[in-house]
Amino acid sequence: MSDKPENGLKQELDRRKRINRIKSIIVSFVGIWMLASVILCATLFVKVIHLENNLNKVLQNMPQVEQVENEETKNSPDADTGKNVECGKQDQTGQDDANKKKADDGEKLKVYLTFDDGPSTNTQQILDILKQYNVKATFFVIGKTDDLSKEMYKKIVEEGHTLGMHSYSHKYSVIYDSMSAFEQDFNQIHDYLKEVTGVDCKYYRFPGGSSNQVSNSDMREFIRYLNDRGITYYDWNVSSGDATSQAYTADELIQNVMGDVTKYKTSVVLMHDSAVKPATVEALPALIEQLQGIGAEILPIDENTATVHHVSIDGEQGQ
Ligand SMILES: [Zn+2]
Q1: What is the pLDDT of residues 14-70, one digit of tens each?
Q2: What is the enclosing helix (H) or strand (E) of 255?
Q3: Tens of pLDDT, residues 268-279
């Protein structure tokens, strides 16, 4: 008689045990699934951060010469029509498009050949060619401490060319990180060139130009800083194209320049003094001959040179 209720109770207990076991399994499964999801998310997050860091490192450590490619691609002559080309030394507010107009009043075209990123193993050759044609140019140099570079800084000055600054490190991520970083880099190149050559450099070219798309900081802050220090910055309105591609032949570089210099009364021509850009050196003699052939004056940047700015202090920005 008493077996039945006991059996029933036992069965009920067994059933509850089974249910509890199944519940435990389900809870464990859900727990494991949630844990796995969290781990997966965390792993993905770490990977994304890692990739981001790698990307930043790649951007930071891009060889100095390659970084300049941004200058070209962002600021090709074709995109130049909307740029501010200003007249008058350090007059950042006074926009003057006189230089944009084709020189049709008989005035000689003024052409300023500028070489960025040097010194390099090509500097000597560039200097020799310039000397051969009795032409003065402008070198926007970066900080290099080897003996050859020191010799080249001095030669640039001794041979009557303009020595301009192009930052010490040429690392966008460093220079444009903050105002203090920019100031530190600026002082470093300024003081270093003063120490090596005795020249108190007055001209600056921003790595990537003032309209570079790499800087996260407001370039106008840096422009203001340069203005306060009495430094004139120069962008360019004519590009040889030697920054965009090493595939350009010397002839193509010449065509690029010759195709644009007649558009302006004052042309500031972007070229590079770099070991990996032999076409620039190769192009130089014929380029000078052709420029002289059209009656252009080839000059070094000085206090009378009309400024060419992509971005100016009042915030107006070119295309
Ligand atoms: Zn550069």
Answers
A1: 888 888 888 888 888 787 888 888 778 677 777 766 767 555 544 443 433 334 434
A2: helix 250-261
A3: 999 999 999 999
What pLDDT was estimated at residue 287? 98
Residue recorded with tokens 């971005």: 311
Residues sharing a CB contact under 8 Å with residue 251, sequence separation 6 or more, in sequence order:
283, 286
User: Ligand 1 centre from 63 Cα, in Å?
Assistant: 10
Strand partners, 213: none
- The enclosing H or E element of 267 equals strand 266-272
| pLDDT higher than threshold 60 for residue 93 | no
CA of 207 to the centre of ligand 1 (A): 5
User: What's the CATH code, domain 64-298?
Assistant: 3.20.20.370
State residue 46 phi and psi, 5-degree precision: -60, -40
Distance CA 316, CA 310 (A): 9
Per DSSP, 217 falls in state: S
Average pLDDT rounded to a whole number, residues 242-257: 89
What are the residues facing 311 on neighbouring strands? 317
CA of 34 to the centre of ligand 1 (A): 51
Read off φ and ψ for residue 214, nearest 5 degrees: -95, -35
Q: How far is the CA of 234 from the centre of ligand 1 (A)?
A: 12
CA distance 197 to 227: 23
- CA distances to 165, 169, 210, 230, 269 from 143, in Å: 9, 6, 19, 21, 22
Domain ranges (residues) in the chain: 1-61, 64-298
How much is the average pLDDT of 105-133?
95
**From ligand 1's centre to the CA of 75, what distance in Å?**
13
Each residue's pLDDT tens digit, 141-163: 999 999 999 999 999 999 999 99
Q: How far apart are CA 277 and CA 169, in angstroms?
A: 20
Residue 245: pLDDT band with limits 50, 70, 90: low
